[in-house]
Amino acid sequence: MNRVEGRVKVTGLATYAAEYPVEAVAYAYPVQSLVAKGRIVRVHDAEAREMPGVLAVLSCEDPPRLAEDADAELALFQSRDVAYRGQIVAAVVAGTYENARAAAAAVRVEYDPDDHDVALRSDHPGFYRPDVVNPDYPSDTVKGDVEAGLAGAAASVDVTYSTPVLHNNPMEPHAAVAVWDPEGRLLVYDSTQGASPDRDTIAQTFGLPREDVRVVSRHVGGGFGAKGSTRPHAVLAALAARAAGRPVKIALTRQQMFDVTGYRTPTIQRLRLGADAGGRLTAVEHVAYEQSSTLVEFAEQTATPARVMYATPALRTAHRLVRLDVATPSWMRAPGECPGMYALESAMDELACALGMDPVELRVVNDADAEPEGGLPFSSRNLVMCLREGARRFGWRHRDPEPGVRREGEWLVGTGVAASTYPARRRPARAFAFVRDGDYVVQVAAADIGTGARTALVRIAADALGVPPDQVHVELGDSDLPEAPVAGGSMGTASWGSAVVRACEELKRGDGKEGRADTTDEVGNDARLARHAFGAQFAEVRVSSVTGEVRVPRLLGVFAAGRIVDPQLARSQFIGGMTMGLGMALMEETLTDEEFGGFLRRDLAQYHVPACADVPHVEAVWLDEQDGELNPMGSKGIGEIGIVGTAAAIGNAVHHATGHRVRDLPLTPVKILSRF
Amino acid sequence: MDITLKVNGTPHAVDVDPRMSLLDLLRERLGLIGAKKGCDHGQCGACTVLIDGRRANACLALAVAVDGSEVTTVEGLAKGDDLHPLQAAFIEHDAFQCGYCTPGQLCSAVAMLGEPGPSAVTDDLALDPELTPEEIRERMSGNLCRCGAYVNIVKAIAEAAP
């Protein structure tokens, strides 16, 4: 079965947020702070107001009314304080995009700047322990005696890794069209991963009852977390429309996206591992150092995978956060697991080298019966089978473990392995199924950001109803539909699908005409178990001894993620995540400008994402995993696990190829060459 | 400024702001939303259209500069209800996820298949190269896909190639 919206996407008819035809729409263009910290003395906008077509200028000089409890990143123009370079400090509304942009360039903001502090460094005096890390995990955990475990180990590693600021960069820039009706109700066409929560946040920001706000997002051009929470552009569109008395459209530029739509925090991670002569872990310690803004505490759960992955008698995990004069970090594909598993799985490879043990076998002997922190049993865990199946398919048993010895001309060749994991959660949702013109319609305020949610839900509903998929129509992407959680945390299909199945069952049980479901009670009664998907990734790399360039001719991922709802969609999700992981390994990096604050490389010519020629062969397969403790579909989320472990597998392969360990992502030619 | 151009065979006479790009003309004035704005700087390829038969980034062309041209967008690829073979192959091979880069990928591929001559990965520069997967990847690398559908895009193009 192909994607149900395939035809509108290949013919250019699918409407993304900025593309809804709205009469008399005007355009807003933001003005961004040029200082990283300070106070706005005066916004000089007289010249801009005189320019052609200008309808309104917004700034803190005449603060538009917003609720007092608005999120600090969304409370536009409410304060004269600047928290980071690139923050939106003013905006111009005009009848055309060209006029709005030109007038925005004419707005001059006068600052009283303060000294700023934007650099994450391991000796920063401002580090503190957050109360919890996202979404609600304890910041620190301790089990057993790590120091004793390390002291008694036959082999140990004590290594520090760093990962840079990363930007989600969905292809569709964040955009919104806001329309107020005469009764004061607000309609926002928004690029969002969740119409219901976006509606709630916008309503809260404007102090409106949520019945008075509607968010529509039928097609979303990727998100990867960047559209998982309401971003300032949506608030700005609504403010601008209120000021101009007309519908207003805003589409952020690619450069503006780098500043105001979130990013993955940079991390510094120290790993200490010890093992006995047989490879069994005697101690694991994972400490992550990260940043947030002065506005909002965002504490990424980077060290949490160590609480899940390997059996050990001694385990300590900790997170330390520092508040800098930077934009607030946010969610990016597999927040926590992705950077955390890069470090843990790289350290496991180093430990295997120290032990003289095969890295697949090291992971196998340390497989866990229950979560190493807390001891919860797993609903299912097939990491070992993923490793074994991957090793078989990849031809791992022919591997010579000696690093730096395979040379083909200028190219050094190596292979590497790493494990993947991601939690399998679900949240309450509602759905409504009914008969229309002899077909079945299923409504749920889900979001299809490219995951194939529409298609997956059609299959799920068709299965539940016992009818062919072409008799089922799924309606999503609208907050007026039954309430649903965000497309994030790899729990969309599990959450929405549970509600869809229950609504379809209700329809069949009742009059056959309609059925409604609310899974709040069902989800609340889920047994306490450790639910996680697992996987194993294998990479082959070729490293040029002349230029330091790393090529990845082969990537293989083997996953155990419950029942796969749709093989074609699942494969695309897995290989898509792995492709993004390749970018993280080799090229993706936003620089922080220590002199002026803010970010450098704010476009796609400087922030490199993988292009077609970078990705010759990515293969993803999965095990047939049965797990009755998940949801009616038996599925685990698959949107994020693909990116977890890829960078470690590639980094480990680079070590195998060259004999050199680079512990600082991305693995750019200059870092590789400096080791030769 | 007054210009005339043909878009997907339909003539248009429009008065445009000299600062307006072809991409904004298509999207904001002519109601053709198929060409996407991903970066507005010629770095992502989402806005790729055909200008007089050649692939080009619509964000890098000023509207006034295409006065008198014939432009084809993704909306002009299908013949009525019959999809272009590349469009059908993209659906069949799941060569997209979010779909935002897809119109640019499709227009780029349509033009690419008609472009003769060697590329950076061609071994023998004297020959018209066979369209191997490596050649496709090289020739399609101006069109970014953040969802990571490249593997499927290459398969779709290889299948639809004449």
Descriptive report:
The complex is a heterodimer of chains A (676) and B (162). Chain A has 676 residues and is of the alpha+beta class. Chain A folds into three domains: 22-115 and 171-222 and 227-260, Aldehyde oxidase/xanthine dehydrogenase, molybdopterin binding domain (Aldehyde Oxidoreductase, domain 4, 2-Layer Sandwich); 132-166 and 264-373 and 380-424 and 531-673, Aldehyde Oxidoreductase, domain 4; 430-524, Aldehyde Oxidoreductase, domain 4. Helix content of chain A is 25%, strand content 26%. Chain A has 16 helices and 29 strands. In chain A, the strands form seven sheets. Chain A has a seven-stranded mixed sheet with strand order 3-5-1-14-11-12-13, with helices on both faces. In chain A, strands 18, 19, 20, 25, 26 and 29 form a six-stranded mixed sheet that branches. In chain A, a hairpin with a 2-residue loop joins strand 19 and strand 20 (411-423). By secondary structure, chain B is α+β, with helices and mostly antiparallel strands. Chain B folds into two domains: 2-76, Beta-grasp domain (Ubiquitin-like (UB roll), Roll), CATH 3.10.20; 85-160, [2Fe-2S]-binding domain (DNA polymerase, domain 1), CATH 1.10.150. Helices cover 28% and strands 14% of the residues of chain B. Chain B has helices spanning 22-29, 85-92, 102-112, 133-139, 150-160, and strands at 2-7, 10-15, 48-51, 54-57, 70-72. In chain B, strand 3 (48-51) and strand 4 (54-57) form a beta hairpin.
